[in-house]
Predict the 3D structure of the following.
Amino acid sequence: MLAGPRPAPFARISPTAPGVTQTFTPWKRLLDENVDARVFSGIHTRSADVVGIALGTSVARYVLRNTGRLLAARQVAVTAPAPRRP
């Protein structure tokens, strides 16, 4: 687990239950609840959701570590002139 400041709580307003707000501090609690909801409703299997969370976490970490390089590459691609056609 990463050391650092304790995350600030955040809230999620229910789109289907008017007036219901849930507050979470660690993202893991929100992820666990989301996996449970999908499994209990028969949408996914637990193993598929666990693998999906692991993949999403890996992608997020890669993007956060490489943001400068990724944005620089995007800026070059956007500002580079299009190749001339004969």
About this structure: The chain has a mean pLDDT of 81.
